[in-house]
């Protein structure tokens, strides 16, 4: 197989990390707007409300809201054929449960999509990328509650109808599998565990089920509104190796992937597979699927799988019989944030997902978060970023050309420096475009091309031939 003509090349962002303007034009608060910044290894502090005198990185982001024209012109200069962004849910429904949407919010995305289309850039839109309206968390307990399903469906219906002639590619929930993997799935499902008595495992399974049904309903209604829509799920894919060739460790690597397949099985097959029911048993949870829900899940299967890939892990069963997952593979170098660098892991992940589902794959996040230095002459020589991305693109090409995996696009994470989700930092930079802003929010927000800017332009121009 060759890299197809029309292969989507571009970059990915999320509203809460990029837009800023957190209260502009009637926007309500999202879960991101009460999350403070931190640093590597320190969890971000989450508040119930915005507190006076505290710094919340999402409030300004890097001001895409007011600078979208300048940024999109730069993406166009690099030759992007796609650009992934999310619609900030509380920009459209400030509390999440209103009857009518906020017209000013809808008008903003009209302007953004028009600007992208002007340059022939295909928008790829995530419907929920860590931007659940905060009000839904306080009033309903977020995705613990089935009551969010109709609110999400309505939000999707409104944006599908509004942008049906501007947007073709949609993703439902960003990294939905992290709902099971995270100790506290705040970003993914708006869930903070405060009550010691709450059965956390069960809550995560229920939140996932509610999101699966919501996603399936979105797929169904999206296809009714425009049969040409392509609607995908979005996973974080954690390629995992056994720490040794001991059979227990080989099995451990499989165990580590089960929560991820749990989500993709339901969204791609349309039902809870044996992998899913076995995981429920293993973890001691249970999901009762009504006939009605079963019908919706089957009807609302996704058209493709999008995923993020940053690094691989190793798995091991310790002497107590517990699964231990680490990022300390001795064969791999690591980034400034201790993430192993493993391009072959991307090829392995592509093969594993394609073998299992036989659905087109879209790499919608991949990249290197690094500290960039502005030289005396103002240049940014980010060769390390070029090396990382080039090796991963080469691995993707091998998956396409040698392994015959069907890949529809590559959109690396953060083509312009934006706020980090893990830490809220600015200094963890992924971009081809540098943004003058520091971790405390100081800076002019001025944009500047890095060395990697021209490199990526060349990659796209040659359809990936020249990395
Ligand atoms: C993914 C998220 O998990 O990783 C993005 O979908 C996030 O929102 C990206 O930004 C990189 O993580 P971080 O912590 O480096 O921003």
TrEMBL record:
MF (Gene Ontology): 6-phospho-beta-glucosidase activity
Catalytic-site annotation from UniProt: 365 (nucleophile)
Gene3D superfamilies xrefs: Glycosidases (3.20.20.80)
Keywords linked to the UniProt accession: Glycosidase, Hydrolase
EC assignment: 3.2.1.86
Signal peptide: none
Record-stated family: Belongs to the glycosyl hydrolase 1 family.
Protein name: 6-phospho-beta-glucosidase
């Amino acid at each position: 197989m060759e890299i197809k003509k029309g292969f989507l090349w571009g970059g990915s962002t999320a509203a809460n990390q990029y837009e800023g303007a957190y209260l502009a034009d009637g926007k309500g608060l999202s879960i991101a707007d009460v999350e403070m910044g931190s640093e590597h290894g320190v969890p971000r502090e989450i508040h119930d409300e915005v507190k006076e005198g505290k710094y919340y990185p999402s409030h300004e982001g890097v001001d895409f809201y007011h600078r979208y024209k300048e940024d999109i012109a730069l993406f166009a200069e690099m030759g992007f054929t796609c650009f992934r962004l999310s619609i900030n849910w509380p920009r459209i429904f400030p509390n999440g449960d209103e009857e009518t949407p906020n017209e000013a919010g809808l008008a903003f995305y009209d302007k953004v999509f028009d600007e992208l289309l002007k340059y022939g850039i295909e928008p790829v839109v995530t419907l929920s990328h860590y931007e659940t309206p905060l009000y839904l968390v306080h009033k309903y307990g977020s995705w613990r509650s089935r009551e969010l399903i109709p609110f999400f469906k309505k939000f999707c219906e409104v944006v599908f109808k509004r942008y049906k002639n501007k947007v073709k590619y949609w993703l439902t929930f960003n990294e939905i599998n992290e709902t099971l993997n995270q100790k506290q799935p705040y970003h993914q499902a708006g869930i903070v565990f405060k009550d010691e008595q709450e059965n956390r495992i069960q809550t995560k399974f229920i939140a996932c089920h509610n999101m699966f049904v919501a996603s399936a309903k979105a797929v169904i209604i999206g296809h009714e509104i425009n049969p040409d829509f392509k609607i995908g799920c979005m996973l974080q894919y954690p390629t995992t190796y056994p720490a040794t060739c001991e059979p227990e460790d080989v099995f451990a690597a499989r165990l580590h992937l089960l929560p991820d397949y749990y989500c993709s099985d339901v969204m791609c097959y349309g039902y809870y597979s044996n992998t899913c029911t076995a995981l429920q048993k293993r973890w001691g949870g249970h999901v009762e699927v009504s006939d009605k829900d079963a019908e919706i899940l089957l009807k609302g299967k996704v058209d493709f799988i999008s995923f993020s890939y940053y690094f691989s892990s190793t798995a091991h069963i310790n002497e107590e019989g517990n699964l231990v997952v680490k990022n300390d593979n001795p064969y791999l170098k690591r980034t400034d944030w201790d993430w192993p660098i493993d391009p072959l892991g991307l090829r392995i992940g592509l093969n594993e997902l394609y073998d299992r589902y036989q659905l087109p794959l879209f790499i919608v996040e991949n990249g290197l978060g690094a500290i960039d230095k502005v030289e005396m002459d103002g240049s940014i020589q980010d060769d390390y970023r070029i090396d990382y991305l080039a090796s991963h693109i080469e691995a993707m090409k091998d998956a396409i050309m040698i392994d015959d995996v069907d890949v529809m696009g590559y959109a690396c994470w953060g083509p312009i420096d934006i706020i980090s989700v893990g830490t809220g930092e600015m200094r963890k930079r992924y971009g081809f475009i540098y943004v003058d802003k520091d971790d405390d929010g100081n800076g002019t927000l001025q944009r500047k091309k890095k060395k990697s800017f021209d490199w990526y332009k060349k990659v796209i121009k040659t359809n990936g031939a020249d990395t």
